[in-house]
């Protein structure tokens, strides 16, 4: 682990009031190395510069603590939908080892990468599953089984809510990571969120540490069970978002 990595990461973690042990920082550095190595042969991320990976992947993922201040102590069961290269799920697992994490992605080669990271870092109580949200959201092993669903996937909030809300237990919440101006999107998604048993409770807006990037975390509480109609069959949530 280089001094530059250690210092930048520590500085930005302090802005979130997160303190990590040396072995956790080493796990993050190893994750960074595996990410860059695998990215040479498959498209995992456009962001590979060390400083950018720290700010835009690692610290961004951990910013969830802004809306869940008991993240460091509660044993939440979390699913990360459309995890891609493992964000935010793997950083959350490294920083808060008591969490139970399920990483979900529709591309099998990404699952291979995620399993490589999990095995290399010696992470426990974390698994990577291959499938589409529209299918797994109907599977009784996953439907309404999670305390929290998170996603950094790029989709409008109505579509993303239909992908993600079926995984959340009644009493749990869905927290999407959104960027840029989101007021219009929030307004358009309100009824869709209602149809899916949810209610937008809180929106935390901030500039990502070390960048000028606008970030919003939206906390959507699930107060009611979800109709068997949702999620609709593969492709429909993105082609015809709920209104």
Number of strands: 7
- Give the class-level CATH name: Alpha Beta
Helix content: 25-40%
Largest sheet, in brief, is: 7 strands, mixed
Rg, please? 17 Å
Task: Find the CATH topology.
Answer: Rossmann fold
Low-confidence stretches: none
Topology:
Blueprint: H1 3-15, H2 22-39, H3 50-62, E1 77-81, H4 89-95, E2 100-105, H5 108-121, E3 126-130, H6 133-136, E4 146-151, H7 157-164, E5 168-179, H8 183-195, E6 198-207, E7 214-222, H9 236-239
Parallel strand pairs: 1-2, 1-4, 2-3, 4-5
Antiparallel strand pairs: 5-7, 6-7
Helix pairs in contact: 1-3, 2-5, 3-4, 7-8
Q: Brief overview, please?
A:
This protein is of the alpha/beta class.
Structure overview:
The chain has 243 residues and is of the alpha/beta class. The chain has one domain: Rossmann fold, CATH 3.40.50.150. Helices cover 39% and strands 22% of the residues. The chain has helices at residues 3-15, 22-39, 50-62, 89-95, 108-121, 133-136, 157-164, 183-195, 236-239, and strands at 77-81, 100-105, 126-130, 146-151, 168-179, 198-207, 214-222. Strands 3-2-1-4-5-7-6 form a seven-stranded mixed beta sheet, with helices on both faces. The protein is globular, with a radius of gyration of 17 Å. The mean pLDDT is 95. Keywords: Cytoplasm, Methyltransferase, rRNA processing, S-adenosyl-L-methionine, Transferase. It is an enzyme of class 2 (transferase).
């Amino acid at each position: 682990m280089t001094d530059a990595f250690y210092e930048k990461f520590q500085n930005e973690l302090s802005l979130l009031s997160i303190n990590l042990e040396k072995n956790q920082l080493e796990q993050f550095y190893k994750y960074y190395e595996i990410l860059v190595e695998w990215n040479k042969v498959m498209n995992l991320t456009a962001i590979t510069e060390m400083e950018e990976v720290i700010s835009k992947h690692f610290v961004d993922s951990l910013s969830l603590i802004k809306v869940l201040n008991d993240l460091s102590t509660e044993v939440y069961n979390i699913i990360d939908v459309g995890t891609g290269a493992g964000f935010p799920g793997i950083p959350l697992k490294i920083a808060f080892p008591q969490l139970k994490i399920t990483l979900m992605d529709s591309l099998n080669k990404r699952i291979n990468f995620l399993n490589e990271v999990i095995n290399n870092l010696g992470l426990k109580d974390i698994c990577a599953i291959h499938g589409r949200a529209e299918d797994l959201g109907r599977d009784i092993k996953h439907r309404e089984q999670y305390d929290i669903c998170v996603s950094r996937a790029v989709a409008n909030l109505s579509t993303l809510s239909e992908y993600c809300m079926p995984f959340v237990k009644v009493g749990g919440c869905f927290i999407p990571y959104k960027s840029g101006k989101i007021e219009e999107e929030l307004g358009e998604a309100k009824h869709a969120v209602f149809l899916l048993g949810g209610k937008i409770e809180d929106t935390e807006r901030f500039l990502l540490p070390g960048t000028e990037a606008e970030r919003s975390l939206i906390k959507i509480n699930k107060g009611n069970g979800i109709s068997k109609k949702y999620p609709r069959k593969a492709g429909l949530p993105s082609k015809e978002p709920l209104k």
